[in-house]
Write a structure and sequence with these properties.
This protein has helices spanning about 5-25, 25-45, 75-90, 130-140, 180-185, and strands at about 55-65, 95-100, 115-120, 150-155, 170-175, 195. The protein is of the alpha+beta class.
């Protein structure tokens, strides 16, 4: 008299024992079948859509870092930032931007008056990796008074970082009535004009 567990094992054995016996009797055929399955698996893997970097990179936002010589006055850095803003305002692929002149990305760190940080939100359909080289070319054509300008793509976390400390902020949207919506995305402050940042 077999228990239910023993009966279940017996049924399982009935299923795989014939296959096992065939494999032992025909090792070369078994190896050939295994090789075909392996090759077919590799071929099917190439059809899978993978996007490792795309899952991290935010394709709707660009970051621009502008740096002038140490000791540059805030008003001079602000004037240099306006050169970058002119390019962004004229670019139809830019939906809005927020610029912080001065401040620091590290909470509690000494703010720097010689840097400007831009968060650029692109229009629907535009991709950061396509717009970036175009902006880089335009930034390279600015004169020396603009300082060193670097355009980078952002990941999903860094795109929401904002400089801390005292500084100046300017915001521009196309059209202007969309500033409130884009402000929530870029983490900005109210008002499309320049104003001191509160600590």
């Amino acid at each position: 008299m077999h228990t239910p567990e023993e009966t279940e094992v017996t049924r399982l054995q009935r299923g795989y024992l014939p296959i096992l016996r065939f494999g032992l009797r025909q090792p070369f055929i078994t190896l050939g079948i295994a090789l075909l399955v392996f090759v077919a698996t590799l071929g099917a893997a190439t059809l899978l859509k993978t996007d490792f970097l795309g899952s991290v990179t935010d394709q709707t936002t660009l970051a621009i870092h502008q740096k002038l010589p140490p000791g540059t006055r805030l008003s001079t850095t602000s004037a240099a930032a306006e050169q970058v803003e002119t390019i962004l305002k004229a670019d139809p692929q830019v939906k809005s931007y927020l610029v912080t002149i001065g401040g620091s990305l590290v909470p509690g760190a000494m703010p720097s008056t010689n840097t400007a940080e831009f968060t650029v939100l692109l229009v629907d359909g535009a991709r950061a990796d396509a717009v970036r080289p175009q902006l880089e070319q335009q930034m390279a054509e600015l004169d020396e008074s603009a300082g060193e300008v670097t355009v980078t793509t952002t990941n999903n976390e860094s795109s929401h970082e904002r400089p801390h400390g005292h500084g100046l902020k300017r915001e521009h949207c196309k059209p202007a009535d969309r500033c409130q919506a884009s402000r929530a995305r870029a983490g900005g402050h109210s008002g499309p004009h320049e104003h001191p940042e509160q600590p």
